[in-house]
Amino acid sequence: MSRYWSEAIRNIEPYVPGEQPKDRKYIKLNTNENPYPPSPRAIEAIRNAAGESLRLYPDPTGKELREAIARHCRLHKNNVFVGNGSDELLAFSFPAFFETAGKPILFAEVTYSFYPVYAALFNINYRLIPVDEEFTVFEEGYRQDNSGIIIANPNAPSGKGVSASAIESILSNNKNSVVILDEAYVDFGGETSVPLISDYPNLLVIKTFSKSHSLAGLRVGYALGSEELTGGLIRVKDSFNSYTVDRLALAGALEAINDDAYFQETRSRIIKSRERVSARLMEMGFTVIPSQANFIFMSSNRFHGSYLFGRLREEGILVRHFNKPKVDNFIRVTIGTDEEMDLFLEAIEAVTGE
Ligand SMILES: Cc1ncc(COP(=O)(O)O)c(C=O)c1O
Questions:
Q1: Of all helices (H) and strands (E), which one includes residue 150?
Q2: Would the CB of 85 count as within 6 Å of ligand 1?
């Protein structure tokens, strides 16, 4: 705590990212990174971009990348906004679409823990909408007065998808507020709501290159929505930092989205590994929430989540544990390569004596 900090920053409880320890070599299953390398075409493009042109600012609008994303999603480039990771797009959305000290925005009581942090940073009221013990998001909770809604689909940290009927009903009951669908993990088996954009000018879908394109280190995300919404994001960006996506990131992301064959192959490998590991864990008696993401959320009725987390760490395997009500008995395990998941299963057997 410093006397030089503003009151807002003194009072905020910042998001805590998953650890990236250097003390020994761990199998890293704690931050939902992709275990496979990025597309070789993307790496080559980044190498080619790392030259003399770096003396110049990047295109502040990211036009070429937006055009490629638009083609991929069957939208117009003006329906696409690119940013420095989807976290930045979420951060920009708060001042762009939600009112300070107005009616609350709504999000699930168990969801991505960055949402309440942005709400605190931008002084936005929020209300938590209950989920059941399987972390299901029900549309009924979103039928109350609000100034905005954020839903992660699939949800985090559960990995559970939100049904298409729930999403349509949330959208049609909230035409006067912006509904943000955070689809960071949708490529691993969820159902995207991008086709609904033409019917709902209040829908903003946020996606990322960090997970299904293996580019967490590059920091690129994109938001898809009506021009009214992308226009709002442009206003925030140009009031903050005009060049949020650098030349290397623009070049790498462009090749990543164009290399569809590589994307399809790596994501289906992850889906296959997830299904295999989930089935094995259930055989061993664990509760595994059905996942449509690149991670699983699991618990045991014999060992507490914090115990599993600590013992796996001793075995050289990092997973994520959230010390919060409703989720503290669970661990979140990112899907790694098949070899890594075999070592994870062996470690689980050793830890639980199965
Ligand atoms: C639900 C959700 N949304 C957004 C993000 C942010 O992703 P990035 O900023 O890397 O695009 C994450 C990262 O873990 C996430 O879990």
A1: strand 149-152
A2: yes
Average pLDDT over residues 26-49: 97
Residue 204 is classified by DSSP as E
Fold of 7-37+261-352: Aspartate Aminotransferase, domain 1 (3.90.1150)
**Any residues with CB less than 8 A from the CB of 46 and at least 6 apart, and which?**
218, 248, 251, 252
pLDDT of residue 1: 85
Q: What digits encode the pLDDT tens for the residues 215-269?
A: 999 999 999 999 999 999 999 999 999 999 999 999 999 999 999 999 999 999 9
The number of CA neighbours under 13 Å toward the Cβ of 100 is: 5
Residue type, 285: G
Mutation test residue for ligand 1: of 31, 86, 150, the one with most atoms within 8 Å of CB:
86
Q: What is the pLDDT of residue 354?
A: 64
Report domain extents, the chain.
Answer: 7-37+261-352, 40-259
Residue 73's pLDDT is what?
Answer: 97
Distance 90 CA to ligand 1 centre (A): 9
Tell whether ligand 1 has an atom less than 6 A from the beta carbon of residue 204: no
Q: Which of 15, 84, 87 to mutate to test the pocket of ligand 1 (most atoms within 8 A of CB)?
A: 87
Quick one: CATH architecture of 40-259?
A: 3-Layer(aba) Sandwich (3.40)
Task: Give residue 3 CA to ligand 1 midpoint distance, Å.
Answer: 32
Between the CA of 87 and the centroid of ligand 1 the distance, in Å, is 6
> What span, in angstroms and rounded, lies between the C-alpha atoms of 184 and 201?
21
Residue whose tokens read 């394109």: 213
In the reported structure, the alpha carbon of residue 302 is separated from the centroid of ligand 1 by a whole-number distance in angstroms of 31
What are 146-181's pLDDT values in tens digits? 999 999 999 999 999 999 999 999 999 999 999 999
| Distance of CA 223 from the midpoint of ligand 1 (Å) | 13
Q: Which of 162, 208, 291, 297 to mutate to test the pocket of ligand 1 (most atoms within 8 A of CB)?
A: 208
Distance in angstroms (rounded) separating the CA atoms of residues 102 and 126: 10
Confidence of residue 16 (pLDDT cuts 50, 70, 90): confident
Q: State the pTM of this model.
A: 0.97
